[in-house]
Design a protein that fits this description.
Blueprint (H helix, E strand, L loop, with lengths): L11 H8 L10 E3 L5 E12 L5 E14 L2 H6 L21
Antiparallel strand pairs: 1-2, 2-3
Length: 97
Amino acid sequence: MKENTLDPEYTIGEIIDRLSAFDRDAIFRMAVNPLFAMEHTAGAVVSTVDPQGRTVVYLAEGGEQLGPLPKSVAVDLTWHEPVEAPPRRRRSATGNL
């Protein structure tokens, strides 16, 4: 099974294996577009045969964009670097009110 590789080709068996580690009642969402990370609902699942004769299965986005992907998810996907707020400097009082 692939583990955070750049190879985008996963078999259905590999996806089933990865998903089987999660609670079957968990909600499934899709993370889309690393540069402007958003979360979407999942839609239809269809298959076809590619020019090499391989069966290819497609999962469509469900048509509903839910909003920005949680920052922690973008970091876990390695789409974004973990960023911490810069330390705050204590400011001195500036005059009387």
